[in-house]
Write a structure and sequence with these properties.
By secondary structure, this protein is mostly helical. It contains 5 helices and no strands.
Length: 96
Amino acid sequence: MFKALMTILVILFIAGCTTVPVFPTEPDDTYLCPQVCLHLQVLQCESGKPVDGVTCEQFCVETQQAGHSLDLSCVLTILDCNAINSCTHNRHEQNK
């Protein structure tokens, strides 16, 4: 019994060590970052302004490349800065 348990533990340990790390995939709308930032600036949204030396476009690209979708096509359709939250809310509802 002990030998069988040890064999199973060794197999599980080896299998755990050989797994391939999972990297986030970049959302495919990252190319929209410049347009989205310009749109936010035209609307005079805080999200379009630099924060701590990081431009809107830098933040957008880096966030997207980290695998966190900002739903840029939705943001491009907003007519009011407060509507940004509706894009985020809609994305979370779709993922449920």
